[in-house]
Amino acid sequence: MSGRERLGALSMQTAFLAVLFSVWYVVTEGSQITSLFLPRLPRVWSEMVGLAASGRLYAAALVTIPTIAKAFAIAAIFGIAVGFLVGRSERLVRLLEPVLSGMFAIPITLFFPLFILFFGIGPDSKVAYGAAYGFFPIALNTIAGFSNVDAHFLRAAKAMGASRYQLFRHVYLPAAMPVVLTGLRIGFFISFAAVLGGETISSAAGIGRAIALSGELMETARMFAWIGFVVLATMILNIVVLAAESRTRRD
Amino acid sequence: MATIDTSRFAAAAMPNEQRLGVASTRVLLVLGLLVLWEVYARLFGRAGMVAPPTDVIGALGPTVFGDPKVRSAVLLTFVELGVAFLMSVALGIALGLLVGIGEIGRRGLFPIVLFLYAIPQVVLLPLVVLIFGLGPAGKIAFGVSHGVFPIIVNTIAGMRNVSPLLVRGAESMGASRLQVIRYVVFPHMVATVFAGLRLAMTMTLLGVLLAELFVSTGGIGYFTQVYAETFNPAPLFALIATLALMAVAINELVRRVELRFTRWKQ
To answer: Is B107's Cβ below 8 Å from some Cβ in A?
Structure first.
């Protein structure tokens, strides 16, 4: 995109957000009926400030963030290991790839009560649930990355006498990396959503639990404040990931 | 979702003999896993947590599908899923066309759509329940909010995939705007849109099930929770297996329809 086009897109997005927030403001200030479904904007803001100042945001994040980190770490380690082992052999790819992608189509959510049963109501069940969700896209992308290396490159490198390590370091790795990174990104956001979802459905602490609790108590403004924090976190994560991606692409 | 082209590894691309070999190895693999599971559950598993496959099959008939309540729950979930999916398709394609048709909309609004898609929607579940209530309406709404985004995104992506050369060619031969859309843009969009539909089906099912687990008033989600909480794993696994098979079958069905519509390309 040229600078001018980017400016146009940016101003349009700003305008969209401005319209969204002003409609929200006008609708809620004008009538009292909707306050249960859609709280007044200033109320949401003061709730957000209150949650941040009282340390409740910090306490909830202290449960949720390590849970997400653990879930993603497990998913990444197992996903890349399985994907690498399978992806190097054409026979294994043909055998296992359809099995794995078939399993990915099964909603793991159905097993969620089992996760609670096995690992308890604490963060452990959410770690396992998030890891199970994040595993499949990472494994499938790693398989795709390692099995799609152009045969010409392999033959050329072998003809020039590359050792097994050199073949891996200079041919397989650079070819597979972009696809594996895509898998990690998808896996991360799926784990992120799964952990929050697990916390919302059945948990004792964490941000998802806070959202569900304020919903059950019909404290809509507080619920919107919590949701606002999640939206902000998503926004920041997206910007970070996009920046990291455009950097790796430039190299 | 990802950039995986599974068709390359599909059995159809192989000679007959090899196809049989791969298929039978795959069956053996699944059978082996089932045997392992059976042995583990019989010898080491705690009763109430894990059920061996033979018990699961035993539970399928009498406990799960013999119970009219479970039958109507399965039916309810599928009605919700169907309604939510149809609504997602209509809404998703309409919004996708609206955003994707013009350069300005695509540049300005598409990033907003992508951002909304990235938000973990499950955090909105309590809000959806608050607005739509505990009944099927809330589950359908949550299913739609999950299903609509992959369709919007893929519709927009599909419109962008049409080569401008083809559009210009059609225009220079005197095609009207409507004709360009009907005969050039639509046929080229089909593959991408169907990829979106398949993903949307999975996501809609996820949304409906999440809502059922959260509100627990009916449907399959309710019964999986009941079985799990009463330490009754055999019917739980039977129900999950049934649903998993149905999910795979639906996926296959959408893929078949897709093949029909994209056959002209081959």
So the answer is: yes
